[in-house]
Amino acid sequence: MTDHQASPTPKTIAVLGTGKIGEALLSGMIRGGRRPADLLVTARRADRAEELRTRYGVESVTNAEAAKRADTLILTVKPQDMAKLLEELTPHLPTNPDAGTSPLIISGAAGIPTSFFEERLAPHTPVVRVMTNTPALVDEAMSVISAGSHATPADLAHAEEIFGGVGKTLRVPESQQDAATALSGSGPAYFYFLVEAMTDAGILLGLPRAQAHDLIVQAAIGAAVMLRDSGEHPVKLREAVTSPAGTTINAIRELENHGVRAALISALEAARNRSRELASGTG
Ligand SMILES: NC(=O)C1=CN([C@@H]2O[C@H](COP(=O)(O)OP(=O)(O)OC[C@H]3O[C@@H](n4cnc5c(N)ncnc54)[C@H](OP(=O)(O)O)[C@@H]3O)[C@@H](O)[C@H]2O)C=CC1
Ligand SMILES: O=C(O)[C@@H]1CCC=N1
């Protein structure tokens, strides 16, 4: 296909800045049946480019080449690297595209609003902002999707199709993206932190580390599946575990005494605030 012609189904997808999130998406697209020949990747280091080529059979190109050849550019560099990446891309993107003829820009970066891209790119450039998370690696991502000013329903559907291949998607107004970043973007880290802490508790209680880890991980998986599949409110599920004069209520009292609920609320608020700070793309 000629560069950037209007097309209802964009063909070539480039992942720019293929680190942890970029690779998770790339591997998901290939698992989902997309041909490596329809994918391009870019990386800052030659050894990383080679690694991606070897691992996935995809072509590794420069950012300039990706801008010229791809119909969809998924930008997965750190927020602080986004301005520089855009500087590298803009000379190679159409400068005065008609509506519908520009490549779709999908940003996976925390904090950076679609206006950041629209201010730096040609008029009509469609931009979609997505906050995914690392469980994309196991097709259990949560990807929260918002349209920029020029993104069409087809652009949103295309982003949903890409990210839907690695988990669930949800459309939200862009004003909710910083909150979503705090909840689901960073969310897996909170659960890993809890598992780490509870495994330490198992050690304190005399269990071997590997056994403590397995017990807590399976409790987490069981709880997660029940939260997802039972349709019950978490309070109900917790009440079902909490027997009168039993063990669980003693633990819950300690969690409340130590302000864990308030700590979590403050923690997510801090993450949301940091996402807002990242909006300028300067760190
Ligand atoms: N990690 C997570 O859980 C999540 C991250 N995100 C967002 O995804 C984005 C990427 O995060 P993550 O994958 O963790 O970060 P990584 O550092 O793993 O990936 C970013 C990659 O971009 C490369 N890079 C930087 N600048 C350029 C450039 N100009 N051209 C080509 N490659 C470049 C980096 O190269 P080098 O290796 O040399 O540094 C690195 O490999 C961030 O914006 C983050 O906010 C969103 C949701 C969850
Ligand atoms: O910590 C971060 O900034 C990124 C964005 C969401 C998860 N990780």
From TrEMBL:
Catalyzes the reduction of 1-pyrroline-5-carboxylate (PCA) to L-proline. Keywords: Amino-acid biosynthesis, Cytoplasm, NADP, Oxidoreductase, Proline biosynthesis. Pathway: Amino-acid biosynthesis; L-proline biosynthesis; L-proline from L-glutamate 5-semialdehyde: step 1/1. GO terms for molecular function: pyrroline-5-carboxylate reductase activity. This is Pyrroline-5-carboxylate reductase. The keyword Signal does not apply. Belongs to the pyrroline-5-carboxylate reductase family. It comes from Streptomyces cremeus. The keyword Cytoplasm applies. It catalyses: L-proline + NADP(+) = (S)-1-pyrroline-5-carboxylate + NADPH + 2 H(+); L-proline + NAD(+) = (S)-1-pyrroline-5-carboxylate + NADH + 2 H(+). Its main location: cytoplasm.
